[in-house]
Amino acid sequence: YDRSDCPPDVAQLGRSTWTFLHTTAAYYPLKAPPETQNNMMALLKSLSLLYPCSWCADDFQKDIKYNPPDVSGREGLSRWLCERHNSVNLKLGKERFECTNEKLDERWGEGPKNGRCD
Ligand code: FAD
Asked: In what residue span(s) does the ERV/ALR sulfhydryl oxidase domain sit (predicted)?
């Protein structure tokens, strides 16, 4: 039955959050000005503290401590996020995503070249 008006479970929350993060990275400036870099750094830090799944938040805090965000520009940020997502994928036994610019742009930026998603 339809559960779309129920509170999100951990998986739904995760899908929505990754959608937001990867999409934001795909539209991030190619080369981000200092103020934008500060804002992105603050967003990621806050997310790791406020994420409403406590064990997810704990692991994410540890992960970004060892792997500081690359907020310099679109490609660096997209790849960094892809790797963070892969570390959660690994933990959950999910498939690894190939973090190339091409694959990331196809999934989260311009979409596939064959126009399937236009
Ligand atoms: P998702 O993992 O949500 O991915 C959505 C889509 O993103 C995929 O269909 C694929 O097209 C694409 N994708 C997959 N991998 C990548 C990648 N590396 N880079 C770019 N795109 C990719 N769940 C838990 O059970 N335990 C946790 O500890 C946990 N920690 C989390 C921490 C954070 C910060 C976030 C945002 C989510 C966390 N989640 C956790 C949720 C989990 O990551 C998934 O979102 C959830 O399990 C649903 O998975 P899914 O198979 O629908 O696809």
From this structure: 6-108
Query: Which residues line the pocket of ligand 1, CB cutoff 6 A?
Result: 10-11, 14-15, 17-18, 22, 51, 55-56, 59-60, 82, 85-86, 88-89, 92, 94, 97, 107
> Is this complex scored with an ipTM above 0.95?
yes
The ranges assigned to domains in the chain are: 12-108
Could you report the per-residue pLDDT of 31-84, keeping only the tens digit for each?
Answer: 999 999 999 999 999 999 999 999 999 999 999 999 999 999 999 999 999 999
d(CA 24, CA 45): 15
Q: Regarding the domain with residue range 12-108, which homologous superfamily does it belong to in the CATH classification?
A: ERV/ALR sulfhydryl oxidase domain (1.20.120.310)
